Amino acid sequence: MRIALAQIDARLGDIEGICARIESQAVLAHDQGADLLCVPAPLMTGLAPGSLTDNPNYEHALIAGLRDVARQLETLDMEAIVPAPVGLEHMPLIEVFLLRDGRVIPLRSVFAAARNGSGEELWLPPVFDVRGVRLAVTFDVERDVPNLPTGCDLALYIQTAPFQMDDEATTGVAAVADGHVAEAARSRGVWVAHMAPVGGFDDAVFTGGSYVMDDAGRVVSMAPCFEEALLVQEIERGRVAAALETHELPQFRREAWLWEALRLHLRDSVEALGRTRAVVALAGDLPSSLAAVLAVDALGLRNVVALVVERAEALTPAEEEAERTRRERARALARALGVEVVERGPVDAGAMLAADLGQDRRTRERLEAIYLEQLARERGAAAICPLTKTDIALAAPWFADGCPGDVMPFGDVYLTELEFLARERVRAGSAIPQALVTLGEVEACLARTVLAAVAVMPGGTDFAESAVGLLGVLEPAQVDGALEAYVERGLAFEDIPLASSAPEALTLLLMLVRAGEAARRRLPLAPTVSARSFAERHWPVQLAWSDTGRATEERLCVADLVSAESERIEELGEEHARRVRGEVAALLGSLLGLDVADLDPEEIESELMRRMQAAAEGEGPGFDLGQLPPGMHSQGPHGFPFFSQN
């Protein structure tokens, strides 16, 4: 059996267009002798369809489109696996559709129904035959392969985890060199076909790198990373196939993969907006310069327009020189990139708004945003916003109202990461000025962000000066490290490294993150490339609580309350049992004429045992109802506490 992995990209929701791509890929695969075609999971709706799957007409359109594809495949004598989200009790489920003999078969649901229909059965890999090869479809290769039923020849691994810059396992074939998947294939003795998506899908991005691995854990064929491809491979269990050497496999390098992932997402995001061009406002700093380079890489130099705005805020000769340097740096970058440059005259924010310097800057940035939006409309282009995750973590209220842009490529990338991204791009050949690829430039960018963050906080000038004093002494790596620990890893105040060295500064940082919750939701789309983006980390907008630590108090948690309450209930049960036992012993003692007034329960039990043993041996008095205490006959059993409680 020959399997074909169609590593293709398409616009979300374009069911007709996607089905046409599947048909064209099937024809190409058929020409190479393929029997089974597989396509990526996010093609139809992405991996977060929301309530779309509850729409009956979506489901109708999906099935109708797949039926047309199935009929075409039948003429080619081919089958196909098409994963797509469907609704299951108002929750999305990625169904595995098998297109066979002109039919559309939802494998996961059919197999679950055949296995008595329990919910757990939906998560078991469906197993079926194609041309004599027994095939299992899995979304978690490490979990499912060791438990595959005997006789399986091939595990078709459909990747659904998008790229994360700190998770090598999300990089397709680039993860194999470090041992991912290979051990599972060897230990179970099955082939593995990894269907890796490529491209941007809403805020998710995939890097491609599909591959086929034999039952000895060796990669026998692979598709390239970061581009579309069709991979066809013969599957024959027990056959020794020619394999690629480890040095021939791509090696995961964090900055290189991150850059390419951002490029793919920007390209697909601009296309999803119905645009082919982009405009970038060059401010002569690292973020805007890097955004321009990324736009050129994603769209081509002919499709990028650079905007340079002159500023009239300089009051001293030194400030005038700095402004000239800034503009010339922006122009030089645009010339080196070969992109069109549009210049606008000075925006005198001070004359338009006689207020403090922070408000002047904010007005100027809003007016520059208007320039950018106008240029984007004139050129039918998408506006690129160069804000970083550090910016939107600390100063979202400042940027949100006047933030220009349709796409924010660095919205899930911290400021300090940009320096390393720039160094990676410079090594590959880039026009970024060397003066911008320095720690000093990162510090200058962070200083501007801190000023913006405190400028919109209530408290007046005294508070602003105090806040700037607290945050101004922190290194960029300290700030981003604290934010990463708090946002991505969800650490509590005391567990963040900055808590011991600068607790007041950390308190302010976390307060700024909390205060920007509502504003962040008004910012442009950003790709998710970290363990947790702000799009995933939603807190209540009206939340007043901020993590300021516990001081010296012991940490309280619900689990401890449960444990303490369980112990209390257990102790009460033991005490109740002892009391009941004592009451029963006293009752029996009274029945046997034992004076229990001065005896404890253990003594009563001991005496009862002695008397009962003696009675059993005929050496003591028997049981006599006449020995009941006075009033027992009239009160009945409720005269005793034991019976009243039971």
Structure write-up:
- With about 650 residues, the chain is α/β, with parallel strands linked by helices.
- Helix content is about 45%, strand content about 15%.
- The strands form four sheets. The chain has a six-stranded mixed β-sheet.
- Strand 3 and strand 4 (about 90-100) form a beta hairpin.
- Helix 13 packs antiparallel against helix 14.
- It starts with a strand and ends with a helix.
Offer a concise description of the structure.
With about 650 residues, this protein is of the alpha/beta class. It has 23 helices and 18 strands.
Percentage of residues in strands: 15-25%
Percentage of residues in helical conformation: 40-55%
Strand order of the largest sheet: 5-4-3-2-1-14
Largest sheet: 6 strands, mixed
The shape is flat
Assembly type: single chain
Number of helices: 23
Mean pLDDT: 87
| CA-atom Rg in angstroms | 35 Å
| Spans of at least 5 consecutive residues with low confidence | 349-359, 623-646
Number of strands: 18
What is the distance, rounded to the nearest whole angstrom, between the alpha carbons of the first and last residues?
A: 72 Å
- Structural classification: alpha/beta
What are the salient characteristics of this protein?
646 residues; alpha/beta; 23 helices
Write the layout of secondary structure elements.
Layout (H helix, E strand, L loop, with lengths): L1 E6 L7 H17 L4 E3 L17 H21 L2 E10 L2 E10 L2 E4 H8 L12 E4 L2 E6 L2 H4 L9 E5 L23 H7 L2 E5 L2 E4 L2 E4 L3 E3 L5 E4 L6 E6 L19 H19 L4 E5 L4 H14 L4 E8 L5 H21 L2 E8 L1 H4 L4 H23 L1 E4 L4 H6 L1 H5 L14 H13 L11 H17 L4 H13 L3 H12 L10 H4 L1 H13 L1 H4 L37 H34 L9 H16 L15 H4 L5 H5 L1
Parallel strand pairs: 1-2, 2-3, 7-8, 8-9, 15-16, 15-18, 16-17
Antiparallel strand pairs: 1-14, 3-4, 4-5, 6-7, 9-12, 10-11, 12-13
